[in-house]
Amino acid sequence: MFVASVIVDIPTQALDAPYSYAVPDDMAVSVGCAVLVTLGGRKAVGYVAGLEEASAAPGEGTDLWGTPLAVSELRQVEAVLAGPFFDEEGAACARYIAERYVAPLSSCVRLFTPPGAVPRVVRGRDGRWRLEEPKIGEVDDRWVTRGPSFGEFAPRKNAVKQQQVLAAVGAGDVRVAELAREFGSVSSTLKTLGERGAVVVERRRRMRGVEIGGAAFSGEASGADDASVSTPSVAALSRAAVRPQLTEGQVAALAAIEEARAAACGRVVLVDGVTGSGKTEVYLRAIEAVLAEGRCAIVLVPEISLTPQTVGRFRSRFGDAVAVMHSRMSDGERFDQWDFIKSGAARVVVGARSALFTPLANVGLIVVDEEHEGSYKQDSAPRYQARDVARWMMARSGGAVVLGSATPSIEALYAVAKDPAWTSVALPERANGRPLPPVEVVDMAAEFASGARSMFSGRLTRALAAELSAGHKAVLLLNQRGFAKFLLCRDCGFVPECPHCATSLTYHEEGCKLVCHHCGYTVAAPPVCPECGSPYLKKFGAGTQRVESDLRALLDGMPGVGPEVPVIRMDADTTTAKGAHQELLERFGAAQAAVLLGTQMIAKGLDFDDVTLVGVINADTQLHLPDYRASERTFQLIEQVAGRAGRAELPGRVMVQTYEADSVAIQAAARYDRGMFLRAELPKRKLLAYPPYVAMANILVWGADEHEVATEAELLRAQLADLIRDTVGDPRWTVLPAVPCTLSKLRNTYRYHVVVKAPLGADISAPLAHLFRTRQTHPHVNAAVDVDPMDL
Ligand code: ADP
Ligand code: ZN
Ligand code: ZN
């Protein structure tokens, strides 16, 4: 008899442990299966995380997870519902994430499960438990194809439908659904034709087309029958695309990656290459080598740069062996990709951070492109950092990790300097030999002092006129933080705020509305001040719409430019629709002269040859935020966006408008001088005890009643401080006072936090896990841990 250790999927804020269930002898269960169990009087779905022969521990002892076994008393697994979704390694990974990030185990095993693929347990009105079938599964299509006597069978003259169907099938295999759409009901026709052997109707597996932005690809393109899902040979794959002669830097990077792979212990190679230096080409070659050894590879890219352009480069090299995973896909599409990977036909998975958790077997390399990106950290449980989980995985499976960036995170640079398992290779030049564009800093304070009031400085205006009239393109970046437009009463200073969030409402020209950008709360803009009745309500700040209309006016009046030059605005409002992002980029690409005006989302991944001017409208708003990474982010943003200019023959230039022209982050970015930036930034981090000099975690506390939240946060702080004093006893650990979060109220929920710092190398998760496992949870205040937080 086997005993299964089962992670029961019941929503919990406490940290959960697996429970043991006996497996009936006639039941086929394996690790990773979703099963039906009973826990605390209710039925629930659980995931099998381990299996042990019960005789090894007859009625006593503990299982792998430390759970006491008493086999005779154990409840039984009631049914196998679906899966397996992960193997022993996946179970170990889930356990690692749960421990490292102090997260419920159930949230960690869910990472491995395609959404919608497991039945849900629901309780009916009559109090009985029911299983609700999974929403997602395989989709079959019925296809009509030629039968053995296709050529011989001649329909009668008046059998019109038979003639139509035969004509259609004669032109190629066709779906029953398609025939029905065209000719009406065809079932009796197909039956007759089938009986005569003229056609054959068969079921074929369908892949829901995966949309990445606008372009769709689907499994059908390569034939929909199972037989076509075979592994293309590596040689065939490599022949498929042009492989440029590698630069010296690329050769060195590949050598470092080969060495790290040979060490087979999860070593990390940082490819520190400017934009356009050929990092992607390095990834492609490294992956070729991995595939040639019969192993597989994962490529993580930031959600926003997961465009057809990016995916296309991998597909043109590795063809149908590339699977794609990202959060904008529907559940059905994700399931199909998951299933495709599970079949063994996929050899490379390209995707956002969730691409780590597919059933891709025998992974020998994980590439994390743009490793400095914040989107590699998940902001809900489990709050894992994909970069670090990748490292753990490769250490386990004897592979290597490649991190790539033009602006590596300070953490990565620090690790390269201090950790022998890390190396870095610099690619300081663009692959095509083009220089990086010069960056000019435009001092907006000086402009203002000299009487200028436009958000476009004289220099930026002249540069726009020159480039656009020459038929070139420009990219203008709006730092969205600080760009919201709000109302202010000039008499009493009143600013309308969201009643549910601690933030001012944003004014929208369209419809004259005030909108909360956190919760969506919307009201009509008041005609007079609701506080003092004054009619002098002034609009402050400039929304992206306002910048767009000002820019439009500016261009319209420009000699040699005028109204024909389109302004394409790309921000949260214009990219909500699926594929909108891609469509805007395509429009920009196809236009003659044009301006792409957008928020942070335009800073990366754009690759247009004819962009000769990049302007940053407001570089400094991030410097004021109470965020220890603000300077680092500003530096990275400017370097990233600068890389969009002058990528091909046409030389580029960059203008950075700022009210803080002296700030080191901006000056250093303008000189592409990372050393200058780090020399200023690192001593500050060290002095104030921030990463990379300490390990940090954040306890988040939230609830509807501010007093309760504050009290609970203080209680947690005190308990944790005591626990650390008693168990760790190292005075270098600090627990800061409980304080409101920067966004102190969100959707009527009050938010507090407690910051914990520990010396580097200390296991900061351990005391937090202990606290969260043992503490009494509050009935209506929530708490969670964020280890290595991105924001405070
Ligand atoms: P990155 O990922 O660092 O931004 P890419 O790999 O996208 O750089 O390369 C930038 C451009 O240079 C691409 O158009 C790519 O095809 C080209 N490229 C890359 N490596 C080489 C090379 N060795 N020789 C010539 N062109 C190259
Ligand atoms: Zn007022
Ligand atoms: Zn709100």
Automatic annotation (TrEMBL):
Domain (Helicase ATP-binding) ranges: 260-409
SUPFAM superfamilies: P-loop containing nucleoside triphosphate hydrolases
Keyword Phosphoprotein: no
An MF annotation (GO) of this entry: DNA binding
Requisite cofactors: Zn(2+)
GO biological process, one term: DNA recombination
Keywords: ATP-binding, DNA replication, DNA-binding, Helicase, Hydrolase, Isomerase, Metal-binding, Nucleotide-binding, Primosome, Zinc
Enzyme class, broadest EC rank: isomerase
Pfam families: DEAD, Helicase_C, PriA_3primeBD, PriA_C, Zn_ribbon_PriA
GO-annotated cellular components: primosome complex
Enzyme Commission number, as recorded: 5.6.2.4
Catalytic reaction equation(s): ATP + H2O = ADP + phosphate + H(+); Couples ATP hydrolysis with the unwinding of duplex DNA by translocating in the 3'-5' direction
Entry binding sites for Zn(2+) 1: C489, C492, C529, C532
Cofactor: binding comment: Binds 2 zinc ions per subunit.
Keyword Lipoprotein annotated: no
InterPro entries per the UniProt record, alphabetical: DEAD/DEAH_box_helicase_dom, Helicase_ATP-bd, Helicase_C-like, P-loop_NTPase, PriA, PriA_3primeBD, PriA_3primeBD_sf, PriA_C
Ranges of residues in domain Helicase C-terminal: 524-700
Coiled coil: none
List of residues binding Zn(2+) 2: C498, C501, C516, C519
UniProt family annotation: Belongs to the helicase family. PriA subfamily.
Family matches, as PANTHER family: PRIMOSOMAL PROTEIN N
Stored HAMAP family: PriA
Chain's role: Initiates the restart of stalled replication forks, which reloads the replicative helicase on sites other than the origin of replication. Recognizes and binds to abandoned replication forks and remodels them to uncover a helicase loading site. Promotes assembly of the primosome at these replication forks.
Quaternary structure (record): Component of the replication restart primosome.
Record's protein name: Replication restart protein PriA
UniProt source species: Adlercreutzia caecimuris B7
